[in-house]
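Hi there, hope your week has been kind to you so far. Thanks so much in advance, here it is.
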Amino acid sequence: MINQDLILETINMIKLYNLDIRTVTLALSLRDCIDSDVNVVCENIYNKIIKYAKNLVEYADEFENEYSIPIVNKRIAVTPISLIGEACKNPDYVKIAKTLDRAAKDVGVNFIGGFSALVEKGCTKGDKLLIESIPEALAQTERICSSVNVASSKAGINMDAVLKMAEIIKKTAEITKDGIGAAKLVVFCNSPGDNPFMAGAFCGIGEPECALNVGVSGPGVVRAAIESLDKNADLSTLANKIKQIAYKITTTGELVGRKLAQKLDIPFGVIDLSLAPTPAVGDSVAGIFQAMGLEHAGAHGTTAALAMLNDAVKKGGIMASSHVGGLSGAFIPVSEDAGMIEAAQKGYLTFNKLEAMTSVCSVGLDMIAIPGDTPVDTVAGIIADEMAIGMINKKTTAVRIIPVAGKVVGDEVEYGGLLGKAPIMPVNTLSSTSFVRRGGRIPAPIHSLNN
């Protein structure tokens, strides 16, 4: 039987409340592209991407039209490139980055992730070379995204890598317009290898030859569901409503993901349940907090509201999919969420509050613009704090921060599209220098010894 109410509900989710498939991401192993000659490596990489991804955009567009469900981004995630270039006698990671960028352009995807290194316990020669090349690689490409994992709950925090990444972030921001390169660079703790979202997507070394991972999103749908409840509904009722709507959102992503993977003749990977906002009005995670009863994001109670939202989304979504992975929960990027932008502009949302919220959200300090003259050591301290939250809580945390050259607190930087606009936020001016420059590793917590 066709249920008219369910059909109308789905139409409203899409047309009125910005329901979409935020991304379909082809995860592709490049481990068989390794060679001692970097030119051969580049040729192998290009040919393999073309082989597997040549129909990705075309088929995704067909399904978008067939099911009338927007698929906003089509992306590729590859094996961490530090591993692929390491065997070269003449390693040139910028050349590899340009090859990836050319392949991404030729198959028509929005971004390609995986210009990455995993250095939570230390760096190999290839890791060091890749990290040093990040600023130039991001300045000379359009579609490359980069990530570096510097900490984990098992290994602790590599403070040498934290300090180095602070330097890399500063340099990347300085040599790209309005720091846009830093918007495509993320530092991780406990980075998952099946995450379909940029800038942190890569194909983990434990992943198959290829797979299709899907990221669904619907903050506007969740807000509308909450607003449909009686104003006096208790929090248990509210959480249950979020679970129900998360189930429906995930079902949509599961359908499209499996059908698209089947047509591409590749395995279906995971559904990432993350609520990813956009600058569009009505598509805001901050708006969900207001629907819950908070005056605005940043009010006391925001962290509790986010914790409940994250948990309810996961509980509802996991019942609708065979394989849930990636990050899954709720993103709180400042520049990409209209409500978060407003809260930051009005001073409701501070760095301290954002850091507290990251203890219960999907990722971490995300798309935050800070003064361009912020010292490297302060950036390193910000990264270290966020890595500690992830390490202790056994969760993924990340820092995607943009020191915008020439900008001071009170200014704004406009990126457009999904990246939105970012108010320049103040940072603590107390020195972190003596601490972050001690070097070495912060040991893993006691609960890491669970074998």
About this structure: The chain has 15 helices and 13 strands. The longest strand covers residues 20-28. The mean pLDDT is 90.
